Amino acid sequence: MSFDVLFNQFLSGIARGALLFLVASGLSLTFGVLRVLNFAHGSLYMLGAFLSYSIWKWLLIPVYGFYVATLLSALVIAGIGLLIEYTILRRLYARGWPEQLLATYALILIITDIVKWFWGGEFLSIPRPEPFTKAVFLFGFPFPSYNFFIIILGLVLVFFLWWLVYKTRLGDIIRAAAHDRDMVSALGIPIPWLFTSIFVLGAFIAGLSGAVTAPYGAIALGMDIEIIVECFAVVVIGGMGSLPGTLLGSFIVGQVYSFGIMYKPELALAFIFMVMAIVLVIRPWGIFGRPER
Amino acid sequence: MKKLAVFTVFLCIFTMFLAPVMAQAGAPVAKAEKTAAPKAAAKADTQEPIRLGAIWDYAGPCYMLSESAVQGIKIAVDEINAKGGIMGRKIDLIVRDTEMKVDVGARETKDLILREKVNFLIGPCSSGVALAVQVVHAESKVLRITCMANTEGQVVDKFTPYVAQVVPNTYMEAIAATRFMNKKYPAAKKFCTLAPDYEFGRREEAAFAEEIKRLVPDSEILYQAWPKPGEKDFTSFITAIMAQKPDAVHSSLFGGDLVAFTKQAAPYGFFEKIPFIALYDLPVFIALGADAPDGVMAFGRGCFFMDPNPKMMEFVGKYRKVRGAYPDSWAVQAYDSVYLIKAAVEKAKSSDTEKVIAAMEGITLDSLRGKFTIRPLDHMGSVPCYQGVIAKDPNYTFKVWKDVVRVPGDQVWRSEEGVREVWKKTGITR
Q1: Which chain A positions have a beta carbon within 8 Å of B238's beta carbon?
Q2: pLDDT, tens only, B92-113
Q3: Structural domain contains residue B21
């Protein structure tokens, strides 16, 4: 195999990893602070994709309509996140895993039906927005520029979350709350408010990632479950609730899948879960995760 | 944290098993609607109606296809009822949903047969569900017309006389597409394949491999990619295929997967560099819009731009009046199925299953896709396979085909000896 072929396959893996990171970061953030495994994160992502299509169609802005639609749909999903947190999740923080699982699982079913009722079973598609319609050339090999857009968006999100969590006062509170929420509450910081805003941010990220994947592939029923399974692999490998862990997990899953496809296409998916199994045996809390206290 | 990790793994596994279930959860509950008898058919009411069970998969990728098919069936049923029914007997249509699950499919089929006492069945969409449903109705000796699920398993490996197929099966479809590709690119020797990893995709690519060896004996298949159905990101598949530098790629991707693949492959210059064929049909063109790649080869099962004969165009008019959209090939085949039943019942002068089957063997139907005959041996219809090249057409807002080739089914189906050979292996005697 020549260098350019391997490099290209590597880039494909990076693009896939970036996509996974976009979705998994929201899942991991919510988990890190709220300690709630939001099973319905993938459904918010799917809803974001469908919503961006409808907004894009309704706006009729020829060139930059997509970007407006992406932002609007992410905001709407954030609003739906607010509603979900306020009416359902808030009541479940103190309860056990099974109830949280049941509640978020129920949300998956509800959102799937809403999508079916609203958009039907058709698969939809948005053309790629300007200026990302063509390819760029690296070492004489083409690489779709929209993939770069996703990678850059992923990097921006990494930087933003890092800044938020490690460089702001809010970040201090977030980290403190993840560590010991009773203590933070005792210091007079309103925990419910903090939790709501984190969940809303997580939902915003889900909606945003759904919207940016819309021009990438097809918008279809079932994309929620498809992504959430891989996102679980990402966060388990990288470590639940850890930002660098999610980044590394996405990178590993993207690369393993990409080179798996090249050398042993039948087993590409299995490789991901093999890596996950190995990580779990060696470090059950994930590469960057912390063991439970 | 250990507990948590174990729990997460459990969740992952749980999700993977549930994925197909959840994608379909909440499909419309058994739509038991009966077509109202038009007034014109008043005299038909005096006799016992013929009961027709439509068994379809209102879920996941099959949702839209099933909707189209049932619409096609309804148009045919309404038409027939308006003209006095079949031999003066009105058709009652009962629609049931399988949720695209084999167990629900089997249950609903049983219910249609035992409680609704249907005379005939039409459906379903998924090849997997079809094989499960087949066990049930064959046991109860009820005839089913299969017009979308096209695995060859229904009429060859697991043959039963209680099935007739009016959609080109996986073998015919792939053979015809392979010959078309070979004619367009006779010098191509090195191939890659790209197909969804399940019954349908596996069978199509197996038939491709068989046929290309016959046509080009020194050909070789360099690489076979098997994305899971519902794959969203084909980038790694695209770069892996391009790294092989094949002369052409045969694919049986369809629907949303084909939309995603096409959009992701275009920026690589994939379609300019590598001749490619896949199941590009109407819904894919509507979703892709201007992104559909001109000049790329396509195969399909027969809709108006593949076969714009007067009968087909008349159907297009009726369908548009009801649905406000163009009918895809799924609606066409479902419509043809109802007329096949009508023709066979009229020839048998009875709705008795055994007599209808006997009448159906060798019957020729003047369908929307031209004339086809049901082969007595395996009940496979000599339905045409279509191939063409993607092109713009000023008459439509979406892209369609040009240079269309219509291959009659009897040129590409497995020969009777071939069928018997498979039967020897699977233990079917006939």
Answers
A1: 12
A2: 999 999 988 899 999 999 999 9
A3: no
Angle A212-A217-A221 (CA atoms, 0-180°, nearest 5)? 95
* Contact between chains at A217 and B260 (C-beta distance less than 8 A): yes
Contacts of A268 in chain B (CB under 8 A): 236
Residues B140 and B201 in one domain: no
* B19 contacts A226? CB cut-off 8 A: yes
Residue numbers in B near A142 (CB within 8 A): 267-269
ipTM over 0.85: no
Highest mean pLDDT among A52-66, A140-154, A243-257: A243-257
- Contact between residue B27 and residue B63 where contact means Cβ atoms under 8 Å apart: yes
Q: Shortest Cα distance from A162 to chain B (angstroms)?
A: 23
Kindly state whether residues B158 and B183 are assigned to the same domain.
no
Q: What CATH number is given to the structural domain containing B178? A: 3.40.50.2300
Number of domains within chain B: 2
Whether A16 sits inside 8 A of B243 (CB atoms) is no
CB A239 within 8 A of CB A288: yes
Place of tokens 């210059």: B269
Q: Is A24 on the interface with B (CB under 8 A)?
A: no
- Rounded Cα distance between B149 and B170, Å, is 9
B422 found inside a domain: no
Considering CB atoms only, which of A108, A142, A218 is closest to B259?
A: A218
Distance CA B56, CA B133 (A): 11
Give B277→chain A minimum CA distance, Å: 19
Beta carbons of A10 and A175 less than 8 angstroms apart: no
Say if residue B223 is in the same domain as residue B233: yes
User: How do the domains of chain A map onto residue ranges?
Assistant: 21-223
Distance of alpha carbon A244 from alpha carbon A237, whole angstroms: 11
Q: For B147-191, what is each residue's pLDDT tens digit?
A: 999 888 888 888 999 999 999 999 999 999 999 999 999 999 999
B393, two tokens: 């057409």
- A residues 199..228 contacting B (CB < 8 A): 213, 215-218, 220-223, 225-228
**Cross-strand bridge partners of residue B143:** B120
Of A135, A223, A262, Cβ closest to residue B268: A135
CA A128 – CA A216 distance, rounded (Å): 7
**Residues B95, B188: one domain?**
no
Contact yes or no for B236 and A120 at CB 8 A: no
What confidence category does residue B3 fall into, taking pLDDT thresholds of 50, 70 and 90?
low
Interface test with A, best of B8, B57, B221 (most A CBs within 10 A): B8
Note whether A170 contacts B: Cβ–Cβ < 8 A. no
Among B240, B248, B306, B308, residue whose Cα is nearest residue B273:
B248
Domain with B79 in it? 27-168+309-383
